[in-house]
## 1
Amino acid sequence: MLGAHAPPLDRRRSRPRQSLHRHGQPSLLRHLIAIGGIAAWFAASPLCAQKVDTVVIRNGDRIVGEIKSLDHGTLTYKTDDVGTLTIKWDKVHRIVSPRYFEVEDERGRRYYGALQSAAADQRMVVAVTSFIDTLDILRVVRIYPIGLGFWERVDGKLNLNLSFQRANKLRSVGLDFDAQHRTRVRLTELQSSTYFQTQEGAAQTSRNSVALSELRFLQARWLLTAAGQLEQNKELDLSLRGLVGAGGGRFLIQTNRIEVRTLAGLAFTNERFEGSSAVSNLEMLITGEGTYFKRDFPKTDIQTTFTLYPSLTDFGRIRSDLDASLTHEFIRDFNTGFTVFYTFDSRPTSATAARHDYGIALTLGWTF
């Protein structure tokens, strides 16, 4: 967290203390031992087909099932009797599994191993061969089983917004899609958005974009990123803009309620406005993203992303994009809310193009 340091984690080993960490990170020896343990687990494949995990929650209930994941403060847990449950992470007192997992804490440190019983509530033990780490449950932000298939690692959402006004015969439709695939060290995200509007006595307008990005997770919450994007906006007379960029950044805050990250790098763009020829630019890329998620009913997500593009080849030109959304879940996997966007270009290539575009839309969404 900003301006705060997590208390040191209890660390117990079954052998005399050795110099196994350098600058707080596991040594090569520890990684090799962990990999060997993981390979041994894959050899014991019958465990994969059984629900052998145990969760004890605050009221003392003991639930046997299968840990699917922990993310955004919610443990997804599959059972035979009542199907798939979502359990608030701060309600979990104990968690045990003989299977192997990747566990990440608030400070971005990762641990690999089976989950063993701890000596006290709201503690968890991650163990592989001779190494044992005891963690504070409330400081753990992610848990993923090692060996998940491709589709089991995919999450996403689909939002639809429709508008109709009889008085001026205004009709609009918008569709937003977002899918994420996460592995041990990467997050790949595909985003697309389309909006179309017609109105009596006015020209049709549309706005479309598709973007593919990848984050690579490094130690201590550091990140590398690469992205590509195609964009069209009739309101700004933008026929097509292509962008490829790369850079790095860091999670500034990472808890079970809040994530804040910042990224910086370079982006190459090629854009064509109506009535103008294509122009290429080299721009700086500065992004800040904040997310708040509440898992009490109604489940709530608030997300804001602000991106700034100061041009290096057209000095003085600055572009910016702001996107914000608020969603509430009203039944399982379905939500309602609104989205806001604002786009600014201080010096469009086309003399007739608008410098601003903004809008707000009510949405009905589905998460998967």
## 2
Amino acid sequence: MEEAVLYKSEDATIYMKATGHVTALVCPPLKAAVFGRLDSPPRVEKVYLDLTDCEYMDSTFLGLIVGTQKRFSRLAGGLRGACGTIVLFGVNEACKGLLRTIGVLGMVEIAEAPPPFPSDLERLSGEAPASARFLLEAHEELSELSAENRKRFSVLSSVLKKAADAEGSKD
């Protein structure tokens, strides 16, 4: 199955759908769309992520879920439940295992049946590879979740920090 993320903001709801093996390749445009909408009025009340057709999520995508959850919760006034928590649907056992291992499972809500999604979700695709800074930020989100994650991502974060610093010095 081809890697893709689909997105739509409608009224006070964000709809996302991930398919295939979701990696850092599709994360930058998704983050730009989601964060842009979260930061714009009217306030977002619901964020849905359909993982029915998602076979695998890399750590960058997991970091994006964490970052989105943190921002959504903060903008919703720290409330949990219907307002302030991302709701995931169609989470297979492989993806649930990744969410559990990294510590994301406790931050989000898992629901059995998705609400009706709009039929005209926009396919987002990356024009360029994710920058080292983007990758670093996603992994910093994961590292903040636990000491285990800090250890798990310490070498990668160190390499990404050096690469991000080098990227910054070219600007």
## 3
Amino acid sequence: MSDPAWAALPDEQLLDLRFCDLGLSVQGTEVEQRILQVNRELEARGLARPHYWLSDEWFTPDGVPGIAVPFYMAHPRLTQLELAQMLEVEGGDEAACLRILRHEAGHAIDNAYHLRRRRRRRQLFGLPATAYPEYYTPKPYSKSFVQHLDHWYAQSHPDEDFAETFAVWLDPQSMWTTRYAGWPALRKLEYINRLMRDIAGTRPEVRSTRAVDPLSRLRRTLREHYQRKREHYGLDHPDFYESDLRRLFSNAPEFSKNMLAARFLTRLRKEVRSTVASFTDSYQYTIDRLLESIIERCRTLNLRLTDSEEVTKTDFMVFLTVQTMNYLHSGRHRVAL
């Protein structure tokens, strides 16, 4: 198939297109192959397959045994745009995509078989009627939840706990009986294992193929979409780092010939952002906003290096990691849903 005309547009023009004008389909894409793999895993367990459609984000609507796949998974040009706008692509590689699909399959199976009505399910995972928070504060070291998607996502809501536990159970490579031995989360996995055996081969109670917010009905532009998305995942770090920053850099006269800290950090920005995001399990976009704030503060204060570039790079990496981890473990930290 030939590329659509918009694939050759620069980002600024591409951002002005509406979702409904993209004309995309799951068929023939890489994500379709990953969908087929998860479908095979479900069929091997005797469970119904969800239906799939393209939308603006990953999600499974309440009451629908189907999965929305984000538009950027359907074309490499849109994957490139997602990376440029958000600095990372959720589900962009095979392993990450399969993790998300297994998670969403948990929601779809929950909907298909009305599992949230079961008393034991509600006792173990909590009440599905619990309101979804806009943000949540995770406990990174808790062993009451499985660890599957990033940001300790199982802790965000009872339904997400169920879907995450299902995803670990479904993954043929998870070795969950060994991985979670001695964890309180093991009780949830054992329950999922019994429950799925009970419903295997039975007819789903809900068989709707309804698609919620398919691309063809979304009238907003990609620019509007990314403006909202960046606001949602953006910076809410307070400026509590200045005293530590002045220990790394200085505007004292004796350092006036040294490199400007703002220039130095701008050069390292991508590497530092990626490394600290990996260390702290934080969104790259959020760390990048923090870096932008730090660089601007260094520029305003005319701060300069006081040591070699190599030593300063190491010290700054530690500084940024500590600041992020302090934030993660304070009452101020919230992860956006």
## 4
Amino acid sequence: MDGLVAFAATYLLFVVAAGAVLAWVMARRPDRVPFAVAGVVAAAVVGILVKVAGMVWTDPRPFVVDHVRPIIQHGVDNGFPSDHTALAFAVSLVVLTRNRTVGLVLLVVSAVLGAARVAALVHHVPDILAGVLIGVVAAGVGLWAARHTPRRFTGQGPGAPTTAGVTGR
């Protein structure tokens, strides 16, 4: 069981990333730039918000407080908030707005990731919940940025390159 927890806590973030790439590849060509903008902005906002939250609140990791060995190797630093969970939820929510099926699967994977990090003794439940909240906020900011991406970059509307006379994609 520890091996499964260790795998989930360590590698499910990569599964979320791979799912996001898959959803991006499956997206219609005009939707790809706004999709990418939303994802990149959301990831950047996660990076900022987890740093700020970590400066505002300190929560020693469970293995430090309880004097036990964690299931996965981890540094003895602030566990608040879970940056893995924040990034996974932000990306999953962005994907959900573009591809419902892949997005729902990724949300489940993100929840399992958060639970596994608790089971691995590297986070407390409030660290995970804060990560979810940060992910939601970051996804919202990323989606807002995508809606405000200039049309000339999305291939839609005035100023976009014309494809008149070009066949195929």
